[in-house]
Write a structure and sequence with these properties.
This protein is an alpha+beta fold and 199 residues long. 76% of the residues lie in helices and 11% in strands. The protein has 5 helices and 4 strands, in the order H-H-E-H-H-E-E-E-H.
Length: 199
């Protein structure tokens, strides 16, 4: 009977071990499948993150290149403008200063301007040129003053003159800065076209 008991115990033991092995195999298979699924999901997620990062990097690169192109065009345009301004200033400023300092030239312009105001004018001249203008105009300046034209001298005007009606409703300015600005604006586009070609 002891043998039968041992046999029965061994048989129960063997069946328990076999059942434990089968259950362990199922648990291991489930764990393996779950691990594969987790790994697959992790790879998919990693691929998606990598794709998103690549797309973002490409977009940033496109934006940066576009910004660089735009900035370089603006820099080139600004440089062209500065070069044109310097050349235009060099070409116009000296001749304008010479013309404005030519008392005969300024005198003829003032005379013509006064003729059109019918002695109802206010004339502003540069204070620094008061003596030389009086010398140039001579008796004509006193005739202008006595004919009802208000003549004043201003320290702010370096060359040229300003003229307008006595009521100061407007002023026409013929200062050296005005002539320079006029000729610079006229010459700037021509200088750019000459240097860099028409755009």
């Amino acid at each position: 009977m002891e043998n039968k008991l041992q046999e029965l115990t061994r048989k129960i033991y063997d069946e328990g071990i076999e059942k434990a092995r089968q259950e362990a195999a199922v648990i291991l298979e489930n764990a393996r499948r779950q691990a594969e699924e987790t790994t697959l999901n992790a790879r998919k997620e990693a691929d998606e993150i990598l794709n998103q990062a690549n797309l973002k990097a490409e977009e940033l690169q496109r934006n940066a290149q576009s910004e660089i192109r735009m900035s370089s065009k603006q820099a080139v345009s600004a440089l062209r403008q500065q070069i044109a301004t310097l050349i235009t200033a060099k070409v116009t400023d000296e001749p304008v200063k010479e013309a404005v300092s030519d008392k005969a030239f300024i005198g003829s312009i003032i005379t013509r301007a006064l003729e059109n105001f019918n002695q109802n004018a206010s004339l502003v001249l540069p204070a620094a040129d008061e003596k030389s203008l009086e010398k140039y105009f001579g008796s004509r300046l006193s005739q202008v003053i006595t004919s009802g034209v208000d003549v004043t001298f201003d320290d702010k005007i370096r060359g040229g003159f300003k003229i307008g009606p006595k009521d100061n409703s407007y002023v026409i300015s013929f200062t050296d800065e005005d002539f320079q600005a006029f000729f610079r604006s006229f010459m700037r586009q021509r200088t750019i076209n000459l240097l860099f070609g028409a755009e």
